[in-house]
Amino acid sequence: MFSSRTAVCIQIRRKSNLEALREKIAKGPSFQEFVKDPQPVLTDDPEEWAGYDGKLKRAKGDDERLRLPPWLKRTIPTGRNFSRIKEQLRDLNLHTVCEEARCPNIGECWGGGEHGTATATIMLLGDTCTRGCRFCSVKTARSPPPPDPMEPINTATAIASWGLDYIVLTSVDRDDLADGGSQHFAETVQEIKKRNKSVLVECLVPDFRGDEKQIETIVNSGLDVYAHNIETVESLTPYVRDRRARYRQSLSTLEHAKRVNADLITKSSIMLGLGETDGEVGVCLRDLRDAGVDCVTLGQYMQPTKRHLKVVEYVTPEKFKRWEIEGSGMGFLYVASGPLVRSSYKAGEFFIASVLRNRKSGAA
User: Please, is 36 exposed, middle or buried when counting C-beta atoms within 10 Å of its C-beta (0-12, 13-18, 19+)?
Assistant: First the structure.
């Protein structure tokens, strides 16, 4: 029997990385078991529906803010796991994108959900970004405080205590640092692996302004999944993202990561509901696939505060299902598509379940 790391995506004998992972996923639970319209809070109480006019899309020139449809309502986060993780993060001076980006799934992920596994996405390099994307609620500044030198060790310590098999690391953009924070990222991965080599590490990284050396630092750090989010279609990129973030630049970073290590799993994410057309979404998916991206997630954009971009359209669960089918037909390793799907949502549970099934079967 192989270790979880070997069984899932590293050093699988006689098979390429992707071939083996496809086989394991096919034998394990489907990704939709974890992302299917994740437990929306629906109710028959008329007060909950009062005022909802059923309007899902703003007309051109309409500045009215759309009301939240019922399938996007969530419960207030509570529970023992939620409180425990929050306390540990504070004690170690760690940040999560779950909090900073106001993720609607924080209660389910931190609380463990129906599967009882708590997951969190650690945000490295502080909680202040040097960029100002119009969809993101993370704090911004031209010169954020310097990175905490103890963060790689503190992060590894927290992850070791949680006993997870899969962890997602992400970060703010740090254009103020000479290397964009890539070395800090790499040190964190190495500290995690030092404590437990079988832990699978996904790094959801910035574009590093397209600097190939910085990309290579991440790729060669020992990580298992390289992720970078394209965020939106090409025509909306200048409007939605910071001016330093470019559509083609994002594609090239993903393509270069794959070029450096062909067996590396690469991943990206698209937000829907910002005014994109169906044709543009299809082109974006094809561009990602042509860049060698293996995994893609599609989720609903939700306005974090009144200062951010308004939602143009609330995409229905049925249309998200259509994108899942279309994306799967393009040859992606998997496509996770749903209103509340996020780039790292339930990734840990999905891979852990696959590993456990393969351990039981003794498959290589």
Answer: middle
pLDDT in tens, 82-113: 555 556 555 655 555 444 444 544 444 444 44
Which residues in 209-234 are b (16+ Cβ under 10 Å) and which e?
Answer: eeeeebbbbbbebebbbbbbbbbbbb
CB 109 within 8 A of CB 75: no
Helices first, then strands: H and E counts in the chain: 15, 10
DSSP-derived pairing of the beta strands 295-300 and 334-337: parallel
CA distance 303 to 306: 7
How many CB atoms are closer than 10 A to CB 300?
24
- Residue range 240-268: average pLDDT? 94
DSSP letter for 209, please.
Answer: G
Round to whole Å and give the CA distance between 199 and 105.
Answer: 23
Q: What confidence category does residue 269 fall into, taking pLDDT thresholds of 50, 70 and 90?
A: very high
Contact 344, 113 (CB under 8 A): no
What is the DSSP track for 119-169? --EEEES-SEES---TT--SEE-SSPPPP-TTHHHHHHHHHHHHT-SEEEE
By three-state DSSP, how is residue 35 classified?
helix
116: region left, alpha or beta (phi > 0 left; psi from -120 to 50 alpha): left
Written as six digits, the tokens of 78 are: 């509570």
Please tell me the distance from the alpha carbon of residue 227 to that of residue 133, in angstroms, as a whole number: 18
Pull the structure tokens for residue 204.
């959801």
Q: Within 13 A of 128's CA, how many CA atoms are on the CB side?
A: 11
pLDDT value for 45: 41
Rounded distance between C-alpha atoms, residue 146 and residue 48, angstroms: 45
Question: Pick from 176, 172, 181, 184: which is nearest to 143 by CA?
Answer: 176
Contact 101, 138 (CB under 8 A): yes
How does pLDDT run across 150-165, given as a tens digit for each residue?
Answer: 999 988 988 887 766 7
Tokens of 50: 């009062």
What is Dmax (Cα atoms) for the chain? 61
Does pLDDT of 258 surpass 80? yes
